[in-house]
Amino acid sequence: MFEAKLTEGLILKKIVESIKDIVTDVNIDISPSGISLQAMDSSHVALVSLNLSMDGFEHYRADTNMVLGVSIANLAKVMKLADNNDQITLQADQEATHLKIIFENPKTERTTEFNLNLITIDSEHLAIPETEYSSVVTINSGEFSKICKELFSLSETVQITTNTDYVQFSVEGEVGSGQVRLGHNDSEKKEDQTILEVSESVQQQFAIRYLNMFNKASTLSSFTRLCLHQEQPLVVEFKIDNLGVLKYFLAPKISD
Amino acid sequence: GRTQVRLDSFFRVY
Predict the structure, then answer these.
(1) In chain B, how many H helices and how many E strands?
(2) Interatomic CA distance for residues A162 and A168, integer angstroms
(3) Residue B12 and residue A126: Cβ atoms within 8 Å?
(4) Which chain B residues have a beta carbon less than 8 Å from that of A43?
(5) Which residues, listed in sequence order, are joined to residue A98 by a DSSP beta bridge?
(6) How far apart are the first and last CA of chain B?
(7) Fewer Cβ atoms within 10 Å of its own Cβ: the N or the C terminal residue of chain B?
(8) pLDDT of residue A191
(9) CA–CA separation, A130 vs A219, rounded Å?
(10) What is the ipTM of this complex?
(11) CB-CB: which of A45, A125, A249 is closest to B4?
(12) Backbone phi, then psi, for A212, in 5-degree steps?
């Protein structure tokens, strides 16, 4: 038996909206300690990794480990039934054929229930090695989203360069070439800060269209954390306060 | 030109 209740259901709506353009069918791993999900996009270029801790739920019960095969596209349709200030409860029995989703609005006395049919997915799992990232950039999530959108109109690829003094996003294409350079900025307004933790410089290239899809999650957190290592995929991380973390992994592009 | 690498080059599938 699994049951989890989230008072702020909007968070779950935002999480589903943040991943529905990247992954289609996913196995949701339910355990007594929380909910996790790991899935790649069809081209195996991007991977979504979600970890939600039981502590973040108003009520959480999972007697055993379970795997719930879910079509994210269908889950996104069901989540549309939720109002932004609904409380959301997820329920599934052992060997369940469906996931029950309940939206409650205690103020308006409105309750919505939906039984989402579960699917069987034999998805491969990826072993993601623990990596010591030699560059970690913490940047305002709205600002990073804006930079990616603007650069995408100039080139489909961005080169990210880090060093101790700045992080640089550079593009070149038939329009021309240029870069956005952000230095360490510890402005008193916390959410405007750019924090660089660079022990080794990194220079890699990425497809911006994936970054734009990842940035859908910027509504979940005021900060985006970019973790880079010269030999590893980029990690774009959004911490979900009091609940967990949503991470996106993106493989680099290499110059021929 | 630039070639897009896949995650399978970095992460072991099991």
Answers:
(1) 0, 2
(2) 6
(3) yes
(4) 4, 6
(5) A117
(6) 32
(7) N
(8) 86
(9) 27
(10) 0.96
(11) A45
(12) -65, -35
pLDDT value, residue A124: 79
CA A229 to chain centre: 19
Rounded Cα gap, residues A220 and A242, in angstroms? 12
Chain B window 1-14: which residues touch A at a Cβ cutoff of 8 Å? 1-14
Q: Please tell me the distance from the alpha carbon of residue A87 to that of residue A104, in angstroms, as a whole number.
A: 5
Asked if residue A29 lies in contact with residue A36, where contact means CB atoms within 8 angstroms, the answer is yes
- Closest by CA to B11, choosing from A204, A44, A209, A22, is A44
Which of B3, B6, B9, B10 should one mutate to test binding to chain A, selecting the residue with the greatest count of A CBs within 10 A? Answer: B10
Amino acid residing at A239:
K
Ranges of chain A with pLDDT below 50: none
Whole-number pLDDT of residue B14 = 79
Instruction: List A36's β-bridge partners, or say none.
Output: A29, A51
Do B10 and A232 lie within an 8 Å CB cutoff? yes
Helices (H) and strands (E) in chain A, counts: 4, 20
Cα–Cα distance for residue pair A197/A143, rounded to 1 Å: 18
The tokens of A50 are what?
């979600």
